[in-house]
């Protein structure tokens, strides 16, 4: 498969990771629970690392890698900032927003893995597969944390 098509698919995931990095950083600044804040900052760092790893792979293929978040994420941030003016900050609601964003990220990874099997270079495919598994673990941890918060 030509590198341009590979770049398009990998950039799709890079942008989702850059969006997630920013979302987790923003979320961490709005939660009250210290453990949750640290977990969100750690996840923001991890998502930035995922994006950089894939950017390096694209650069090695001679392709241009995405370096910015999506327009959709920018609009989401504007909406959340506007909504914050009228609402109180709530750890449960913030975790719910992170879950929604991760739903989208998981779909992006699964889509690229499904169509990428056989056309992505094996090294890139393996990186994306490994990252997807790790994001799945984060998603499960978010679900558990959400359950604990809702119970209390």
In short:
This protein has 152 residues and is mostly helical.
Task: Report on this structure.
With 152 residues, the chain is mostly helical. It is 82% helix and 0% strand. It has helices spanning 3-28, 34-60, 71-86, 91-116, 122-151. It is elongated, with a radius of gyration of 16 Å. The mean pLDDT is 83.
| Helix-strand category | mainly alpha
What characterizes the major β-sheet? Answer: none
**Termini Cα gap:** 52 Å
Large-scale geometry = elongated
Total count of strands: 0
Number of helices: 5
Helix content: over 70%
Question: What is the succession of H and E elements?
Answer: HHHHH
Query: What's the pLDDT, averaged over the residues?
Result: 83
Radius of gyration: 16 Å
Portion of residues in beta strands equals under 5%
Unreliable segments of 5+ consecutive residues: none
Looking at this protein, list some descriptive labels.
single chain; 152 residues; mainly alpha; 5 helices; elongated
Please write out the topology.
Elements: H1 3-28, H2 34-60, H3 71-86, H4 91-116, H5 122-151
Helix pairs in contact: 1-2, 1-4, 2-5, 4-5
